[in-house]
Amino acid sequence: MTKHVLVTGGAGYIGSHACKALRNAGYVPVTFDSLLTGWEGAVKFGPFEQGDLADRARLDEVFAKWKPVAVMHFAALSLVGESMKDPGKYWRTNVLCALNLIEAAVAANCKQFVFSSTCATYGDQDGVLLDENARQLPINAYGGSKRAIEDMLRDFGASDGLRSVIFRYFNVAGCDPEAEIGENHEPETHLIPLMLDAIDGRRPALTVFGSDYPTPDGTCIRDYVHVSDLVDAHVLGLKWLEDGKPSDVFCLGSGTGFSVREVIAKSRSVTNRDVPIIEGERRPGDAASLVCGSTKAVKELGWQPKRSDLETMIADAWRWHQSPRFGA
Ligand code: UDP
User: What residue range is the signal peptide (predicted)?
Assistant: First the structure.
């Protein structure tokens, strides 16, 4: 029997990689995307339904047409800095669209839900190694909006039997090793693609956002996970739900943090090129250090990250960066 999975944001960076992983695991990913930040060229692994999550009638139509066994919800606004400047946009878009989606799923009796949440729900906790039990104290509207969606999923679990697997990601990096799809945001704000742009001259330089943080070299520390490993966890999360297991939360990190300067140094060695740098101010909303263990995902889901060492992530991103990619 063909199993369709509705993938919101399937034309985006993580969503498109999830579609490939789902296709490889025997599912048919149905991408639902507004193309506000996604690329139609990234929809390669299943059907495409263009639509806005704010449009409940359109969602009902898509649920009725494909009868998905589950939803994977990636579509969201996800820029920490922007969420500090325009919190209303984040609360309105992320929370109301998720509510619409959850209600449409429940109405269509599609009660398995995989949600892409974030370590930004933890806020700034002085460099402690975070895990699923850490308190959620977001310091920006992006993290706040994602925490609210987590709460919503729990409430619909209690009222309607919606079962969910929530993944709290740390920093996602790298690209499909076969370079069929990759990372292209417009505007781009993420460290590694911006750095690769500075390396190949598409941008004049990379600005380092703050070097007076309480970390060994003064720059922020992040826990980077390869996008292919991340989406493998999502397929395992879907299987978890399909096996009838209860709702749960998993952190997806590598347990190792790298500072901005360490990422720059590794990029120099991987690409064998210089990275022009400007020392800049702190970016509002940035936590000094975000690192997490993934013990629970490894133990409970059987997750095995394969490409999440810094060198492989940068090498895969660099290969995509040099390919004739969409949106470049
Ligand atoms: N960063 C930076 N310069 C940039 C973009 C990012 O120094 O042009 C830093 C940022 O302050 C953070 C880290 O790189 O400490 C990762 O940022 P990114 O935006 O990639 O992901 P986030 O941590 O916001 O999810």
Answer: none
Q: Active-site residue numbers?
A: 142
Q: Which residue segments constitute the domains of the chain, with CATH numbers given?
A: 4-173+224-252 (3.40.50.720), 191-222+255-321 (3.90.25.10)
pTM of the model: 0.95
Tokens of 165: 């697997």
ipTM of the complex model: 0.98
Task: Please indicate whether residue 45 or residue 327 has the higher confidence score (pLDDT).
Answer: 45
DSSP state of 232: H
**If you search the block for the tokens 């999975």, which residue do you land on?**
5
Going by alpha carbons, the residue nearest to atom 25 of ligand 1 is 171
Count of beta carbons in the 10 Å neighbourhood of residue 155: 12
Sign of CA dihedral 82, 84, 88, 93: positive
Mean pLDDT confidence for 231-254:
97
Written as six digits, the tokens of 167 are: 């993944």
> Which of 189, 196, 222 maximizes ligand 1 atoms within 8 Å of its Cβ, making it the mutation to test the pocket?
222
In this structure, the residue with its CA closest to atom 12 of ligand 1 is 220
Token readout for 82 is 């922007």
Rounded CA separation 255/204 (Å) = 33
Strands 28-33 and 48-50: parallel
> What's the CA gap between 289 and 13, in Å, rounded?
24
Query: What gap in Å lies between CA 102 and CA 158, rounded to an integer?
Result: 13
- Determine the Cα–Cα distance for residues 211 and 225; give it in Å rounded to an integer: 23
How many H helices and E strands in the chain?
A: 11, 15
Please report which confidence band the pLDDT of residue 287 belongs to, taking 50, 70 and 90 as the band edges.
confident
CB 67 within 8 A of CB 75: no
3-state secondary structure of 304: coil
Tokens of 142: 């992006």
The pLDDT score that the predictor gives to residue 138 is 94
Cα–Cα dist 29/46, whole Å: 5
